[in-house]
Amino acid sequence: GRLFVEWLEARYGRERFDVFLRDYFNHFAFQSISTEQFIDYLAQELIVAEPGLATLDEVREWIFEPGLPAFTVTPESDAFDIVDNWRERWLNGEIELDAIPTADWSVAEWRQFFLKLSDRLNLEQMAELDAEFDLTHSDNVEILYLWLVRSIETRYEPGIERLEQFLLDVGRNKFIRPLYQELADTDWGRDWAIEIYQRARPGYHSLTRQAAERVLDIEVQR
User: Fold this and answer.
1) What is the DSSP code string of 113-160?
2) Using CA of residue 25, residue 29, residue 34, residue 39, what is the dihedral sign?
């Protein structure tokens, strides 16, 4: 869907496409529409109104055919490669953490940094990261989640303390089930995880409860 929208923007230009988007949302405000209604509106407001830039056949290929069209405008970015380079230089002892230009990093860049640190950190490095970026007190749940996974891997005490409150406060299965799984896979965390789960359980959605109980290998409670 995102690539389709970016393709339209590339064909018609940002200024013209922004006008179309505003008119589209105003025209269909507070109602549901079908795919054919969308195609008809797109054809009238862009394809016919601005001939020669895109065709209805191309639009239908985007919507109804499998895979991406050959004419897709694919995004290109070296942002993750740059993050990878900074991370590896730090791990190799070539630079200090304060040399990494994280001030303008997006959440996606932070995720890239931490995802490829799995099982590669020791307690000293965890403490160094925490001192530099205050990760244990991060208010971004995506970043904090990965930091807590790394904390379980290293048994980093400040992170483990934060993990308990996270499991009690956050109910999203995307984060909760993997964290319980990480704890269950350790030789020290399963019983503690079960104790936390019993306290957190009333605040979880039923599907989250079932997922947590499966990974903790405890009897499913109705």
Assistant:
1) HHHTTTT---HHHHHHHHHHH-GGG-S-HHHHHHHHHHHHHHT-HHHH
2) negative
| Continuous segment of H or E residues that includes residue 182 | helix 173-184
DSSP code, position 171: -
Q: Contact at 8 Å (CB) between 174 and 205?
A: no
Helices 56-64 and 2-12: angle between axes, nearest 10 degrees: 170
What are 41-91's pLDDT values in tens digits? 999 999 999 999 999 999 999 999 999 999 998 878 899 999 999 999 999
CA end-to-end distance (rounded Å), the chain: 39
Cβ proximity of 4 and 46 under 8 Å? no
pTM, two decimals, is 0.74
